[in-house]
Amino acid sequence: MAVLIGRDLLSLADFSPTEVLELLQMASRLKSQKLRLRCHKVLGLLFSKASTRTRVSFTVAMYQLGGQVIDLNPNVTQVSRGEPLQDTARVLDRYLDILAIRTFAQQELQIFANSAKIPVINALTDLEHPCQVLADLMTVQECFGTFSGLTLTYVGDGNNVANSLLLGCALVGMNVRIATPNGFEPNAAIVETARSIAANKTEVLLTNDPEIATKGSHVIYTDVWASMGQEQEADNRMPIFQPYQVNEQLMSLAEPEAIVLHCLPAHRGEEITDEVMEGSASRIWDQAENRMHAQKALLASFLGAEEF
Q: Binding site for L-ornithine: which residues?
């Protein structure tokens, strides 16, 4: 994976299909095989949004690689007092070896990448969540051993996770269907990019009918109906999204061997029922664990690592 040393991950579209598959292969190996960084490295976490899995999984992954982590809370840095992002980026570039950013606007992430020479990783923006989808793809591969002939159906809000799923599934050659209420579809430009990557070899379907999307699918995926920053819309969205709940009735339309994924945190009883979340088809906890392995593969690839 020497080709990835020094690279950024702002969008899954930054990677080729081969690079994604090789990252997933490395992540799988890292579940049972140790690697270490070639020299001491420091990861900075600059998170403007709340985080449990992303913060902890990045931290543990870096420690297991033999590196260190600095948690850069924006509220106690000069960013909160209006320092230009490009100035902060140029300073952090002198201190850190790699930076993971969780923020609102994708443009902020791009400013950091343009202003710093160190690798910059998208740890979530309002537009994309590529680290999550690498873990999702890893989980699907563990369950089925292949992507060929599989269909992933995402049901709910066309948010950052839906956007990245479109790109990720297209890159690995898996069919993807996105079922959302009218007016809540994924980003149109990302849909077109995904269709370009799929190049008519795999299906990229958008629909407002969750039953049509779910029928015959192998992976059923959902997320909260109101993402971070949209909490004030939650009550108004509830009746709109209720028909998109992942429940046993919807699961009955999927393939018998279908699995269920959720990026968490979950609002049980809203976008997914307890019965499905705790049922035999759920791979949600494996999916959460795989965040750490997938991100460790990213860190090792971007910084350079060796087996021991």
A: 160, 223, 227-228
- Res 308: pLDDT: 47
Domain span at residue 12 reads 2-128+291-307
Query: Known catalytic residue: 291?
Result: yes
258 and 144 in a common domain: yes
Question: Catalytic one among 97, 102, 218, 293?
Answer: 102
> Residue 82: what pLDDT?
83
CATH of the domain at 52: 3.40.50.1370
- The number of domains in the chain is 2
The number of beta carbons lying within 10 Å of the beta carbon of residue 14 is 14
Same domain, 276 and 165: yes
Closest CA to 203 of 154, 140, 248, 266: 154
Same structural domain, 73 and 198: no
Q: Are residues 163 and 228 in the same domain?
A: yes
Do 300 and 278 share a structural domain?
no
User: What percentage of the chain exceeds 90 in pLDDT?
Assistant: 86
Residue 204 and residue 217: Cα distance in Å, rounded? 13
Q: For 48-68, what is each residue's pLDDT tens digit? A: 999 999 999 999 999 999 999
Cα 186 to Cα 164: distance, rounded to the nearest angstrom? 10
Catalytic residue status for 223: yes
Do residue 18 and residue 150 come from a single domain?
no
283 catalytically annotated = no
Active site residue 249: no
